[in-house]
């Protein structure tokens, strides 16, 4: 199991995270509750940043992909750790700016950025916009001109490397809603167009080959393809890109089917990328570009644990045992969306041996509302505190108010202290934007 120095079983046999007893957290803050371990997040930021400093002379920037978990406090932590962030919507941008995050270290993504989002980004002084379509290029150029600005941009490129958890494939696949394909020549075409834009400064290229990837080779391959393309653009247009953003995607531990990687293990992914960049730069006679990576899941994923209280238990002999909790797909839709796998344990009886396979069900009015299927637990009883591990990424950020359930609060734990970074929603919050038109009064 994923035990490390900030996640352990204490003398009472309770799960402990960031020095806080999980049962105590459940008592003080209620359940369902997202718990985020600050030290883990900071260690991950520092590990990636350290490699850029030591192995690449500081000529790069780690961008936290904030879609994984976005709230004011996380941007503060990213700022303190000296990294940048990527945002993908006006809402994430607003949150970052509101937290005092330096705009010049923000990269803005999105396959269909709205006009108002681009205007907002320009007005905030966002450092770099990663352009994703021909429409966006024209729109952005016009908006920048109207403001008398020259905006730095990258292009999102689809390099034809597709990676999944334990394998990757090379494709000439152009069927993606994201970016400009190398294979069909649109990446080259847009480069030519951009070089003629007066209010945009093309700095380089971006790619993101997938998520929850363990295979280092897939990143190496992406570097090779991107740098070959950069060499081609230099030869054709005399344009030498000075930035290369290789996206995120590093896999994390959810269950023992996944590798358990330490912060220094993640650093090794970046070392692989750096050595490939250096190799290809030499091969193609390019200068080594300013390097960017965008890890999201690997920074916050394993930092998170969700705590629930066990309610109804339904045993269907010979079929299945359901252990229902007070959360569900409204706080974690990843099983419903991707049949995601998780590890669960009883936080109040964490030292007990698991003895039966159960499915942890949520409380939503929907059969597919499962938090995790087929997990091993000790015999659960109503009132037990159930912990699901590795829920820090794409859980809170994908939560909803389905069935008008309240999105759980988030507490940040460190050295035995716990405090809210997202407060609980109230029922009043749920109706805050509801309006009854006069004719229905
Ligand atoms: N950069 C770009 C352009 C991305 O599209 C993504 C993720 C990342 C960086 C961060 O990737 P990471 O390091 O977190 O793997 N909702 C899904 C994950 C969607 C990821 C989308 N893009 C899930 O719950 O698994």
What is this structure, in a nutshell?
With 441 residues, the chain is of the alpha/beta class. Helices cover 31% and strands 26% of the residues. The mean pLDDT is 96.
Which structural category fits the helices and strands?
A: alpha/beta
Write the CATH fold name of the largest domain.
Answer: TIM Barrel
Poorly predicted ranges (pLDDT <50, ≥5 residues)?
A: none
Named once each, the bound ligands are: ligand LLP
Radius of gyration (Å): 23 Å
Strand segment count = 23
Name of the CATH superfamily of the largest domain: Alanine racemase
- Number of helix segments? 12
Mean pLDDT: 96
Give a written overview of the molecule.
- This protein has helices spanning 22-29, 38-56, 72-80, 90-98, 115-124, 134-146, 186-195, 216-237, 263-284, 297-300, 334-338, 427-431, and strands at 7-9, 15-17, 20-21, 33-37, 60-65, 84-87, 106-108, 128-131, 151-158, 161-164, 167-170, 180-181, 200-206, 243-245, 290-293, 304-316, 320-325, 344-346, 356-361, 370-377, 385-389, 410-414, 417-422.
- The protein is of the alpha/beta class and 441 residues long.
- The chain has 2 domains: 7-30 and 303-431, Lyase, Ornithine Decarboxylase, Chain A, domain 1 (Beta Barrel); 38-300, Alanine racemase (TIM Barrel).
- Strands 4, 16, 17, 18, 19, 20, 21, 22 and 23 form a 9-stranded mixed sheet that branches. Strands 5-6-7-8-9-13-14-15 form an 8-stranded parallel β-barrel, surrounded by 5 helices.
- Strand 2 and strand 3 (20-21) form a beta hairpin.
- Helix 2 packs parallel to helix 9, helix 5 (115-124) crosses helix 6 and helix 8 runs parallel beside helix 9.
- The model has no long low-confidence stretch (mean pLDDT 96).
